[in-house]
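>> received
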Amino acid sequence: RLYHKKSRTGCARSRARRVKCNENKPVCSNCHRHGVSCPLDPVDELAQDKMYSTELDDPAIFDVPESRSRRLLEHRLLQNYIERTSKTFAACHHEDVRIAWSCRVPKLALEHDNLLYQVLSMSAMHLLKSTPNDVELINARQTYHCLALREHRRAVAELNIRNADAVCCASSLIFVDAFASLHGRLIKPYSPPMEWLHMARGAGSLFAVGIAVLEDSKEFETSIIYGIANRGRYFDNDLQLFQETNRNGLLELLAQGILEEPWDQETQQAYEKTLSYIGWVQLAIKENEHPMGICRRMMAFAILAPKRFIECVDLMRPRALVILAYFFALGAQLRDTWWIGETLQKEIQAIQRAVPPEWKPFMREPISRIGLTACVRSVDKSQACNASQSPE
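>> returned
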């Protein structure tokens, strides 16, 4: 353990660990040494800005007065979370992970408002799937979601060994919440799901900070998040996730000469790394890994994808959008999961409509995987039309 005066201007991870930060950008020396995302990175700062608005600081906006109806509502939401919602998260096919989310997290939430409000918010959103017009649930979802973000921001500002486990668990739920929220977003005209990508990266950055605090203590292996995260230790192996052979079946997406686009070494490497990750998940699917295991691999995409790729998605580069469609197609087995549902199909359909004609043939595989046969016929018809109009 290195002992230094607490940094007041360094990155959040260094301040939480009480070590000196040299404030190098985009990655300080401490985060570089540990191979983690650095909160000094401008992209991570943007991600956290997306997650926490200063409007949430006003306690008069969202605080809910005590009443019998509130107690009954919260009891209903907590019971639903324990019995149903907690069993739908990634890797919950493992009993220890399922017990962590359904038993240990609710108990921890009674001591940490950020986690409690996020649990109630997720439960309300889950119940709304079956009763979408329930006004009480609509209001509960909005209220507890805002309260969760406000309290989470405060918990992160005071991050220490006593609340690090709750911060990690709440960050994980916020990450799931961000993906679940894609279902209701407007996609005509199409714009990439940047809110989800930024929220996921922000949650991932805070998750890493919380893990670092726990690792510096003797309590890490007894923490709840250790039991949950330990089932996915393969995420620590970059050589496995991003090796070149993973993308063997996806090389056509790196083809040049399709359309002029900005291209440099950083951009090429970002696309290669992204495709390697997608190929890594595809290999797990071919090996018949449990769908909830695939879900864990898939959900880590937004955190682990190169920042340059995220920037290309934001710029609506056709190649980046097509690759994003390949990512969404990974979840074909997960459409019965309530927080995933029809989101995959909607996003792929929207991307297929948004990309220019020369890129539509590359959409055939993702739209076929997700079962959009009408869109496949449309692509085939477009290809035939282009072929008939091309000079001999």
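>> The chain has three domains: 1-39, 68-227, 237-250+257-370.
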